[in-house]
UniProtKB/TrEMBL annotation:
Enzyme class at the top of the EC tree: oxidoreductase
One example of a Gene Ontology biological process annotation: glycolytic process
Cofactor(s) listed: thiamine diphosphate
Gene Ontology cellular-component terms listed: cytosol; oxoglutarate dehydrogenase complex
SMART domains: Transket_pyr (SM00861)
Keywords: Glycolysis, Oxidoreductase, Thiamine pyrophosphate
The protein's name: 2-oxoglutarate dehydrogenase E1 component
Region (Disordered): 54-92, 930-950
NCBIfam families linked: 2oxo_dh_E1, PRK09404.1, PRK12270.1
An example Gene Ontology molecular-function term: thiamine pyrophosphate binding
Oxidoreductase keyword on record: yes
Feature: compositional bias, Polar residues: 61-70
Length: 981
């Protein structure tokens, strides 16, 4: 019920006439639920507990279920606590007025109970520092429902809600406050799925704050938080002032993670992928991932985390990841902590993609065996848009992972910003309500409550396959980092923190004071932990990593590759029979399929291409590449906005029946036993979807994984993934990826936002053979470039500036022979027309991509035979020898670089010096290349079609006919920049 309706009902309960009507209505409902309106029936059902369909599933005493499955829980057969059950009064002996009064009491009590289910978390004791006292909420006050203090000890019939048939108002109030306003606050009434809501309600009201832990369970929890706290204090002592982004104040997250792994292992989990930013990462690496302490200490001493024979830049220690096998009661769980940059939350979609790929690799179609766990900071979860983008993926067919567990290390601050300045909602977790995830808020100073809430979280995820959030409210003892002074901006908070005992002290005092553990045992646990760390510290000076794990597991057999890329050729051609099979699949549909007439014509055209062996266009070449890889056993996954059809209606990888709207994917129907093809229309997200596909490709090197932007500049929204993961992961973290990024690019007068994919940005990222960057001009070269991704024995991401107008350009076609034996990928394409002898060519124009066809068409129309055109198909790794070989053919020619993009964009600033060095090496008559193209500009392109065409005509004229002295000097002093030519 919404709050307005509830407020109206409360008013009715305080009004005599309305109360009488409500009582009569409730009596009718009790006699015959179908006799009242459906809205009232739903309301009364919710008051009494849950819809009947769910109530039936919940029979049996709740205390007999699940308690043995928490770390250290007591005997599950133990009797339930005394709930003071009573018997209902003899209603038949009551007068009508008395019966109606009792009915009203029931309704009032049930409404109050429901209010606690909805809003009890608002008065929960969540802040370990006690800085924010919960404000009383009127809906949680029994007086709001017409009760007075005189009613506190009167028995009220509540029909087994809360497990009680009758109870006094005092007892009801006590139970709901203990349940919903203790150290755990639960938000779940926003969930619209009755079974999920009933499950949470049952688990909360039966046992959430009443779990009994065994001595072994408490000892285990104590060991975990002692290890966590001692680790941080040890580092603080040995390396004072060194940045480590410690976990102090949030140590309870370590036993929470352990509980997720242990309970998850009992519920079919085999593998868990973690993603987190830097706060607490070293602690998780040590105490969850079991990374050797010697390795961690050696990194603090400035030693590399990589073996000596592995190249790479490495990264700061609190960004690194690792993997390990953990044992729980004889069950092995493989755990992975993904490396992450300082861009908070950027790792989230990467983890989701890796989880999805792992599930595909092991055939986990129920998505119960592989789990993603994301550990958030409170300010980052509320502030970073990628969090919302990832929640948007949670229930989508092509991206769902069976639910993610979100753990929030809620420090109640973001660097120096307090919550009231960093978010508009009540909680940092409010964004999770968009997918109706249950949210458990828990006081981090109560480790038992934290551990129990973690168990509830993993059980919910395994039961329903959807996300769940655990918000551990704690604090940050050291400030943003260990060199920071937090009292500059939060003096009151840090005065409290200075006086506040640690979680180890608080929990230890509780155990000792209640006779649950001896102080001697606590002292021994601490001493043993310190001794272990001292031994590791002593051994850390001589520690050297003996191997890297980056080419193990699914990467076994692949190699690292650095340098000399141009000299490697790969067998990317396809066999004629494989091409024929793919052609047949992409040119036919089932007889009963009602294909769109326009598409039917396209299918006939594809069949004609195969018969003639000529005229294969871009989309057909792509389908041939996908199809032949599928026949080779490689899965193909294509994701992006509208990529099934293609932004430019060119692909049609997913056909839609015009009558039933059923989907048909021709590439999944080539032959039995082939690999799987996915073409997924993604949500309108770039950051999360690109991150997801990067994570998928990083996990599965044997699949061709592609992300396609709707227009190339849409990649702007995912720049963090390009900068931090795609371009640098191999060198920072020893993690390769074969992801292909398709960015439609080309100047056709469509304005600033639909012209340029910003090639200059990607070229600026290129170094040490980290990327492949291509701007291709033939369908056959596209075919070979895609197949090359999986045919070589290493993996590199490829950024490919894909065409728009060339998709249907009559000259942009290839012959079948260009796909078969004897064909391969061409990094540089030389002149193809019949020109004057090479030594009589007066000008050679180098270019890349679509502008080649503008130049070719103009040259042919003007019958120019002394200007050669050379296409640089692969811009990076720069094909030095291929370019020099073509330039050497024309020793007397002036060398021009022509591009469509403004001079400060595109490839010019990247190729200028490289062409200069090539010409010097050749001792060419020209020692520099000249520029033909648009002048430097703040905007990528004009928004006026007429101006665009004038600019395009001019740059073609410049390249083909202008005197060198008249060519533009794009970075002359007139533009405020120093000249480079």
């Amino acid at each position: 019920m919404d709050s307005l309706f509830e407020s109206t009902l409360r008013t009715s309960l305080l009004n005599g006439a309305n109360a009488t009507f409500l009582a009569e209505l409730y009596e009718r409902y009790l006699d015959d639920p179908d006799s009242v309106d459906a809205g009232w029936r739903t309301f009364f059902e919710e008051l009494r507990d849950a819809p009947e369909a769910v109530r039936a599933e919940r029979q049996g005493p709740s205390w007999t279920r699940h308690t043995s499955q928490v770390i250290g829980a007591a005997d599950p057969d133990a009797p339930p606590p005394d709930k003071g059950k009573g018997k209902a009064g003899d209603a038949a002996a009551l007068s009508d007025d008395a019966a109606r009064a009792r009915t009203l009491d029931s309704i009032r009590a049930l409404m109050m109970i429901r209010a606690y289910r909805v809003r009890g978390h608002l008065e929960a004791n969540l802040d370990p520092l006690g800085l924010t006292e919960p404000e009383p909420h009127p809906e949680l006050d029994y007086r709001s429902y017409g009760f007075t203090e005189a009613d506190l000890d009167r028995e009220i019939f509540i029909d087994n809600v809360l497990g009680l048939e009758t109870a006094t108002l005092r007892d009801i109030n006590k139970v709901v406050r203990e349940t919903y306003c203790g150290h755990i606050g639960v938000e779940f009434m926003h969930i619209q799925y009755p079974d999920q809501k009933a499950w949470v309600q049952k688990r909360v009201e039966s046992e959430l704050n009443r779990t009994a832990f065994t001595d072994l369970g408490r000892r285990t929890i104590m060991e975990r938080i002692i290890e966590a706290e001692t680790f941080e204090r040890f580092l603080h002592k040995k390396y004072p002032g060194t940045k480590r982004f410690g976990l102090e104040g949030g140590e309870s997250i370590i036993p929470a993670i352990e509980q997720i792994l242990k309970r998850g292992s009992q519920l079919d989990l085999d593998s868990v992928v973690f993603g987190m930013a830097h706060r607490g990462r070293l602690n998780v690496l040590s105490n969850v991932m079991h990374k050797p302490l010697e390795a961690i200490f050696s990194e603090f001493q400035g030693q590399s985390s990589n073996p000596e024979d592995v190249q790479g830049s490495g990264d700061v220690k609190y960004h690194l990841g690792t993997s390990a096998d953990r044992q729980f009661d004889g069950k092995t769980v493989h755990v992975t902590l993904n490396a992450n940059p300082s861009h908070l939350e950027a790792v989230n979609p990467v983890v989701l993609g890796k989880v999805r790929a792992k599930q595909a690799q092991i055939g986990d179609t129920e998505r119960r065996r592989v789990l993603g766990v994301l550990i958030h900071g409170d300010a980052a979860m509320a502030g970073q848009g990628v969090v919302a983008e990832c929640f948007a993926l949670a229930h989508l067919t092509g991206y769902r992972t069976g639910g993610t567990i979100h753990l929030v290390i809620n420090n109640q601050i973001g660097f120096t910003t307090s919550p009231q300045y960093s978010r508009s909602g009540q909680y940092c977790t409010d964004i999770a309500k968009v997918i109706q995830a249950p949210i458990l808020h828990v006081n981090g100073d109560n480790p038992e409550a934290v551990v129990h809430a973690a168990r509830v979280a993993v059980e919910f995820r395994q039961e329903f396959g959807t996300d769940v959030v655990l918000d551990i409210v704690c604090y940050r003892r050291q400030g943003h980092n260990e060199a920071d002074e937090p009292a500059f901006t939060q003096p009151r908070m840090y005065a409290h923190i200075a006086r506040h005992p640690s979680t180890v002290e608080t929990y230890g005092r509780y155990l000792v004071d209640n006779g649950l553990m001896e102080q001697r045992v606590l002292d021994d646990l601490h001493a043993a932990t310190v001794a272990r760390m001292e031994a590791a510290f002593a051994a850390s000076g001589g520690y050297r990593p003996n191997r890297a794990d980056w080419l193990l597991g699914t990467w076994e057999g692949l190699e690292a590759a650095f340098g000399e890329e141009e000299y490697k050729q790969y067998a990317t051609a396809a066999k004629p029979h494989a091409l024929a099979e793919v052609f047949k699949a992409i040119s036919t549909t089932p007889e009963t399929f009602d294909v769109n007439p326009k598409i039917a014509r396209q299918l006939k055209a594809k069949a004609a291409m195969h018969e003639s062996g000529e005229g294969i266009d871009w989309a057909t070449a792509e389908a041939l590449a996908f199809g032949t890889l599928l026949l080779d056993g490689h899965a193909v996954r294509l994701s992006g906005q509208d990529c099934g059809r293609g932004t430019f209606s060119q692909r049609h990888a997913v056909l839609v029946d015009q009558t039933s709207e059923a989907r048909y994917r021709p590439l999944n129907n080539i032959r039995d036993g082939q690999a799987t093809f996915e073409a997924l229309d993604s949500p309108l997200s770039e950051f999360a979807v690109l991150g997801f596909e990067y994570g998928y490709a990083a996990q599965d090197p044997m699949a061709l994984v592609l992300w396609e932007a709707q227009f190339g500049d849409f990649a702007n929204g995912a720049q963090v993934i390009f900068d931090q993961f795609i371009s640098a992961s191999e060198y920072k973290w020893l993690r390769m990826s074969g992801l292909v990024v398709l960015l439609p690019h080309g100047y056709e007068g469509q304005g600033p936002e639909h012209s340029s994919a910003r090639p200059e940005r990607f070229l600026q990222l290129c170094a040490e053979d980290n990327l492949v960057v291509c701007n291709l001009t033939t369908p056959a070269n596209y075919f070979h470039a895609l197949r090359r991704q999986l045919r070589r024995n290493f993996r590199k991401p490829m950024v490919l500036f894909s065409p728009k107008s060339l998709l249907r350009h009559k000259l942009c076609v290839s012959a079948v022979a260009d796909f078969q034996d004897g064909s391969r990928f061409r990094r540089v394409l030389g002149e193809t027309d019949d020109l004057v002898p090479d030594d009589e060519v007066r000008r050679v124009v180098l270019c890349t991509g679509k502008v080649y066809y503008d130049l070719l068409q103009a040259r042919r129309e003007r019958n120019i035979r002394d200007v050669a055109l050379v296409r640089v198909e692969q811009l990076y790794p720069w094909p030095r020898d291929g370019v020099q070989r073509e330039l050497k053919r024309y020793p007397r020619a002036t060398v021009i670089w022509c591009q469509e993009e403004p001079a400060n964009m595109g490839a010019w600033t990247f190729v200028d010096r490289r062409l200069h060095y090539a010409l010097e090496d050749l001792q060419h008559a020209e020692r520099q290349a000249h520029y033909a193209g648009r002048s430097a500009s703040a905007s990528p392109a004009t928004g006026t079609a007429r101006v665009h065409q004038q600019e395009q005509n001019t740059l073609v004229d410049q390249a083909l006919t202008w005197d060198v002295d008249d060519l533009p000097r794009p970075f002359s002093r007139a533009t405020g920049l120093s000249a480079v030519t």
